[in-house]
Amino acid sequence: MSTYTIPHVIERTASGTERTADVFSRLLSDRIVCIGTPIDDGVANTVIAQVLHLENDAPDQPIQLYVNCEGGDAQAVLAVHDALAYVRCDVAVTCIGQVVAAPTILLAAGTPGLRAILPHARVVLHPLEASGRGAVPDLILAAEEVERVRRSLEALLAEHTGQSLDRVRHDLERERVLDAEATVAYGIADRVLVRRPAAGRR
């Protein structure tokens, strides 16, 4: 995970006092969640907690999820996916930069009509691979688990995009890079978003 200084913002309250918050907390107050690193268990738990909090706070209001994510642990990604499906809120997902490998399903899983990708972003379909060391029986079990997760990811991508399962399986056999227009054509996103709509418009 990248290490960088998290910026803070200062805002003035209704009473005239000033308060400081890190930028992610400030965005959360506006129902915006950002994923900007590969997804491990820690990142997944943080995102899930934010999503559950926002649903509890206002279940009739949409959640805005921005994703710029280079891979991660597939099981952690599935946990985030299930949380997005679980909550009652609409979830608008926007890809900024890139989405690589398993996190692709998070973009695809956004509420239909609310999935966007910026014009110079890309989506990378990438095969799930097994790796590890140990006794042969352990390696066999690890390979079987990778196959199970891979089948889950394939089924979800087919469900969210409308592509056939056979095509998704074929496309995930090798790395495939989709630009913004190709991502929309594939069904992973609904539109290429050049500029955010004005308030009150979608």
Automatic annotation (TrEMBL):
> Which domain of life does the UniProt lineage start with?
Bacteria
Q: Which SUPFAM superfamilies match?
A: ClpP/crotonase
Q: Name one GO molecular function term.
A: peptidase activity
Q: Which UniProt keywords apply?
A: Hydrolase, Protease
The record's listing under Pfam families reads: CLP_protease
Q: Where are the transmembrane segments?
A: none
Task: Return the PANTHER family for the record.
Answer: ATP-DEPENDENT CLP PROTEASE PROTEOLYTIC SUBUNIT (PTHR10381), ATP-DEPENDENT CLP PROTEASE PROTEOLYTIC SUBUNIT-LIKE-RELATED (PTHR10381:SF26)
Which protein family is it in?
Belongs to the peptidase S14 family.
Q: Report what the protein is called.
A: ATP-dependent Clp protease proteolytic subunit
Please report the organism this UniProt entry assigns to the protein: Brachybacterium huguangmaarense
